[in-house]
Amino acid sequence: MKKISLLIGVLALGGVAIAHAQQKPAIDPAKADAVVKAAFPTANEVFAPRLMPDETMRQCSASRNNPSKAAAAAIRAREKAAIEYPADGNYMGDWKKGEALAQNGYGLRFTDYPPTRANGGNCYACHQLTKKEVSYGTLGPSLSEYGKLRDYKDADVKAAYEKIYNSHSALPCSNMPRFGANKILTIDQIKDAVALLMSKDSPVNTGQ
Amino acid sequence: MFADRVKMRKFVQRRDEPVKIMRQVLYAVICSVLAMIPPALAQDAATEKAIEKYRQMLKEDPWSNPGLLDADRGEALWKTARGPKNVSLEQCDLGKGAGKGAGKVDGAFAELPRYFADSDRVMDAETRILWCMEKLQGFNPADLVKKPHPGGGQPVKELGAMATYVASKSSGMKYAAKLDKPKEKQSVALGDELFHRRSGPFDFSCATCHAAEGLRIRLQGLPFLENPKEARKVVGEWPAYRVSTTHVMTMQHRLLDCYWQMRMPELQLGSEVSVALISYLTKNAEGGNIAAPGLKR
Hints:
heterodimer; A: Cytochrome Bc1 Complex, Chain D, domain 2; B: Cytochrome Bc1 Complex, Chain D, domain 2; 12 helices; 45% helix
């Protein structure tokens, strides 16, 4: 199962690598920044900062998500340092809330502004999780039986928290959002998502 | 599942009865196909199959495409004297010269985007129509780009209807935009750069969703737009009538909607970003068929 997930990941990255090999004239980064600034004139103070990528995004875009060893190490270190851990050292919340979060795609669009409720994680957009939900995307690997396949080990519970908080800390230039680092989800919400993946009674692991 | 998208889109009223019936039939087919799916392993393949069957139904009867009504509306608008200067757009040069004769609009879309010396810019069809509405008819462009796209259930706006008309007059032809002048090459390269530019709180770029074959977001298939084979299949179907929102969506609108999914602000119609992305997509789709207005989910 894990091998299959890995294979899917490698294939997805492969597509990016092929495109990267194509020849293209260089674009001055300052030029790209300027046209982007001009193209979104209605951006208010909440949205305007989104027009400019941070250093990690820049490194990933410039390398077409195929960072050099040095850049990957820099990204991993930077993003790892950006992880905030739960104060009580407990990484697992409530899987039921985690499931609701995984279903919910609300949040941060211009039609969601000003916000009327908590953001969702929308994990099903990209991942298979429970068997019951057949409407799942395939941008990410299947997470079905995620905890079971890892024997519910403590180290994997922590790793899942870190992955969801900051995907690039585990895989630089991941296509998965940095849910904690980018303030999409709160620490408590991330704990709920971890519980969905890693708790024994979660439908992800009971095969429901 | 399709209902999800439906809810998300907040679309309200439907434009006319035939469309409503068509949609009901389509949903019924999807639901019955999905209901037959055995659980577990077969699910993936069966889901894809249901979606494919749905696409086929959309294509079986091209004349049922309500987008053709918008193309007709667009033609009437194109030929009517309008705006503060009260002239028609028949003097709008889409790259094949201005004037009433056939051949000025026919086939023009197939060669867009292109560089226009009068504006010293590369322009796609919608940006060019916007420019002509300003320069020839005297409309205020700020008004035209303020709310340029329809909400769910509303008909496409005038500019979009004219873009649908213009595109339909290249339907059946192949994309033949040259994109070989320096500014055109620059626009394609900028589009390529922007396609891979990650931004916003989700770190998305267009490539996040369109840089590999056979992937989906929930159940929506994601075309691999970097790949000429896939780009040739879908790019020429825009503007397209979208069943899920019951209106024609233009390419400029499509891009705004994808930026919406990226949690970015509203992309301005006619902006250099929008033209560059369209140049890039069109370059990838070179040689592909134009079948506009298309029909989409």
